[in-house]
Each structure stands twice: as C-alpha cells, then as structure tokens.
Amino acid sequence: MKIWGRYSGKVNWTVFALLLSMPLFLPFTRHADAQMRSELNQLKQELQALRDEVQTKNNMIKRMQDRLDALETKMQAEVPRPVEEKMTALKQEMKIEMAAKAASSALSGGQVFFKGGFVRMDHPRTNSLLTTQSDSNDKDGWQVGGGVDLPIMTIFNSTLLGEIYVEYIQTQKTAGDSDATVEGPTAPNKKLAEKRGLENILTVGIAPKIRFDNLGSYSPLLAPYRPWIIPVGLTFNVNTPVNKAITNISVGGVSGFGIERLFWNNRVSLGVDFRYYWGPDIPDENLRHFTTGGYVGLNF
User: Fold this and answer.
1) DSSP 281
2) CA of residue 189 relative to chain centroid, distance
3) 249 vs 105 pLDDT, higher one
C-alpha cells in the first residue's frame, strides 16, 4: 500500500507539471500548424497555376490543329489529285508528245491533198454570150481539186508552206437558147449554141500557207491537230461559157483558213477548209465566190 501511494503521488505530480507547462508549448504548436497550412496553400496555388498552364498549352495545341486541318482542306481543294498521280500523268503526257515528235521528225512537212465540197457564188452568172442559165437565181454549186504544200521555212514553231493547187467549180447547167446567130452559105441564121451545157470555173492558185504545228506544247491532246491560214494568194481563173465582153480569163485573189488532224503515224491528214475568192470583176460579170469542204492529205 505504501508503494502504491508513492506511485500515485508521483503520477499526480507529473500530470500537474504537464498541465502547468502546456501554456508554454501552445505557441509553438500553433506556429507549426500555421506554417503547415501556409505550405499547403502554396502547394495548392502552384498546382492550380500548373493546371492553368497545361490548359493554356492544350488550347494552343487545339488552335494549331484547327489551323493545320484548315490548311490541309484548302490544299486538297486546290490540288485535287495527289502529287504522285499528277507526276505520273505528266510523264505520260510527255511520252505521248515525244512519241508524236519522233514520228513526225521523219517527215519534211509537205503534203499532197485532194479536196471537194460546196460553192456559193456572190451573184448568179447571167452574162453569157451564147447560153442562158437553167435558173437565173441559182448561186450554188460544187468544187473538186487538188494541190501540193511545199515547206519553205519554220517561223515561231510554225511552218510556212507554199501551196500550188488546181480547182474546178461547177455552178449550174446552161441551155443553148442564145439569140446569137451566124450567117453561112449552107446554114443561114444558125445559132452558135444549142442544147445544154455546163457553167464552170477552172482556177489555178499559188498562195503562202502558215500551218501551226505546235499545239502539242499546250496540251498533248492537241498534238494531232494542225490549223492553218492563207493570208492572201494569187489565182488565175478560166470561166466558161464566154461572156458578152468576150473575156473568159481573169486574175484574182484568195484568202482562207482550215484545220486538219493527223492519222496513221502522221502520214495521212483529214481536214476541212474555208476559202473566199475575190478580185477585179470581168466586165459585167461577178466571179467572187466562197468554197468550203473537206480534204484528204498525204504527208511526206
């Protein structure tokens, strides 16, 4: 009992001492708690700042991705075909053009052609000495001819040719109903023209022709096509029947244009042409006319 009493006394004194010392340690405890709270708030602020920075970078990355998508969409709209496909098509076009040039390099650029088609006179021919027309208002007819184009020189990737050709034109039928007669011992008052005949013009022409051979440089699809023009040429015309001025030979001019397409390794051409013939009229006779039609050319 004495021992328990002594032990209880010591405990009581210890508890009493601790109670007396607590006010002394309370400021230190409060200071540690405040410091811990301050550090915790600082960590929270740093974490929030880090979150804000990450969000800002995410927004920037999203804007950059949107711009990249817009740029890609624009490029796809401007370039409908991939680059590789365009390069393949370009190589194929170059091969076609080179093949066409290689095939045509063996040719000198000349041509023999045969033509035919339609004729339209500016005015009907009504001044014949010996005959009358079946239809005094008929201005239509047909034409057939042929010629040769000789290469002279190259001008700006185009070929200057000299064309020489012959063309026959028939306009209409005639009747031998003229009032002109001839006196003779065996046939008094005999008509100079009887029965039906032909009203025609034979033309020999010489003209410069400019043929454009470089369309393939614009597109390989245009390489087989060759347009041409005749600025002005010289024609010699023989017309029958003779007119009342006893004149049936005249000199005139011609202008025209056309286009042809190459076939069979550029050896054959099929084309169309349009020509207008003009010049001084024969007295009381108008021979101006327009022709159009097709032609076949053999290239050499």
Assistant:
1) P
2) 68
3) 249
